[in-house]
Design a protein that fits this description.
Number of helices: 20
Strand content: under 5%
Number of domains: 1
CATH superfamily: MFS general substrate transporter like domains
Helix content: over 70%
Order of helices and strands: HHHHHHHHHHHHHHHHHHHH
Distance between the termini: 22 Å
Structural class: mainly alpha
Largest sheet: none
Number of strands: 0
Length: about 450
């Protein structure tokens, strides 16, 4: 298979990997160490819920940051906004590493943690969408699936690096030392990560398609343009964004907490599983992108979302065995195979659904609002459902499965680009004309 990865795609993906190191690092810490550092006076369940609540706060900030950055990105350029998100993420993550704990600062410590998590969310709100659009808009239409999905691989590599650094730091230190100061080391490294990402993104330019729209004066009021000319696409775009959030954060955040608190496995078991699952994405993400280009975006999304809905029950059965190899297989099944099918198709669909004049705004608005409602709350809701069902997982399975099926329904309302249809039943997919001329 021919992947045809463009140079802007490589630069965008590497930058996203470095920036997503910061954002995903918080999820691992929230599940394993932050409850003990910032909420030590609460009982174990309340401490975990409080920590996962701060995790969710970042997601609720993402739509705000996404809309602001998206509007500015449609007006002044994607490149400039990607620099802004990088700086915001690096600074806030580094500051988390120097926060005093609850024993030192009392209630001010978790309050400051929430503020910094909000700043992380503001930066993350425009990061992935910008990188995705930079990759998609520089690519030919027939290779858009591979290129648009590439920043997803950046997310995986960033998460892999974050989990790996967190794991290595905890492995070489005693539990007391790690809880006292060792957990700060991965966050302090965010400063170096930010500098590296800034240098790499100096080589990325705005796409010809965006520059053409800007030269014609078509970048006036992106948010208004989104609702007036593409209002009917907002709901389907939000629906197809549900499954990627569920299949990302249920296994990578809630499952880690469940394994440690309920199953009783050592922290390294879940962390190793996440490392394995993310490492395999080097193969599965570009493969999923190629499948989108070869067979269409819609069938790939439906396959991933429906498969996850069916496999959630076996997933938890495998986790509850407490056997490392079986746990790792479960994480690969959901977090790698099912997740990458939905992420690749989501990225490709979103990059084609909106005009260049309001595309950044459209992607961030639909993707980040859904991320806040679903992705930010899924670990918290799953923890509460698990407690409500007295240790059973049937309520978590049912809730997650229904959400994934909603994405499959949403995909039915998204048109494929002309080259994937037998007849052109509607107007050409966004960017087809520009791509055909390039």
């Amino acid at each position: 298979m021919t992947l045809r990865i463009s140079r802007p795609t490589v630069a965008s993906t590497v930058g996203t990997a470095l920036e997503w190191y910061d954002f995903s690092l918080y999820g691992t810490a929230a599940a394993l160490v932050l409850p003990k550092v910032f909420f030590p006076d609460a009982d174990p369940l309340s401490a975990t819920l409080s920590s996962l609540g701060t995790f969710a706060v970042g997601f609720f900030a993402r739509p705000v940051g996404g809309v602001i950055i998206g509007v500015l990105g449609d007006r002044v350029g994607r490149r400039m906004m990607l620099f802004c998100t990088l700086v915001l993420m690096a600074v806030s993550s580094t500051l988390i590493g120097v926060l005093p704990d609850y024993a030192t600062a009392g209630a001010a410590a978790p309050a400051a943690l929430v503020v910094l998590r909000v700043l992380q969310g503001l930066g993350a709100g425009g990061e992935y969408a910008g990188a995705m659009l930079m990759s998609a808009e520089h690519a030919e239409t027939r290779a858009r699936g591979v290129n648009a999905s590439a920043p997803t691989l950046g997310n995986a590599v960033g998460s892999l690096a974050a989990t790996g650094v967190f794991f290595l730091t905890s492995a070489v230190m005693s539990e007391h030392s790690f809880r006292s100061y060792g957990w700060r080391i991965p966050f302090l490294l965010s400063c170096l990560v930010g500098v590296a990402g800034f240098i790499i993104r100096l080589k990325v330019t705005d796409s010809p398609e965006f520059r053409a729209a800007r030269s014609k004066g078509h970048t006036g009021f992106p948010l208004r343009s989104l609702f007036t000319s593409s209002g009917d696409r907002i709901a389907p775009a939000m629906l197809i964004s549900i499954a990627p959030n569920v299949i990302s954060y249920l296994p990578s955040v809630y499952a880690l907490s469940h394994l440690a608190d309920d199953v009783g496995t050592a922290a390294w078991v879940g962390l190793t599983g996440i490392v394995i699952a993310n490492a395999l994405k080097v193969v599965t993400v570009p493969t999923a992108g190629w499948l989108c280009d070869r067979f269409g975006r819609r069938p790939v999304m439906i396959t991933g979302a429906v498969s996850a809905a069916v496999l959630f029950y076996p997933f938890f059965v495998m986790l509850d065995t407490g056997t490392p190899v079986i746990i790792w297989a479960a994480l690969v099944l959901i977090f790698t195979l099912c997740n990458d099918l939905t992420l690749a198709s989501q990225a490709t669909m979103l990059s084609e659904m909106f005009d260049a004049t309001h595309r950044y705004t459209g992607v961030t608005f639909t993707r980040e609002i859904t991320g806040a409602i679903i992705g930010g709350t899924i670990p918290f809701v799953a923890t509460r459902l698990h407690a409500w069902s007295h240790g059973g997982q049937w309520s978590v399975v049912g809730y997650s499965a229904v959400l994934c099926l909603l994405s499959a329904v949403g995909a039915l309302f998204v048109k494929e680009p002309p080259h994937l249809r037998k007849t052109d039943g509607g107007r050409p997919a966004v960017g087809d004309t520009a791509a055909a001329k390039s």
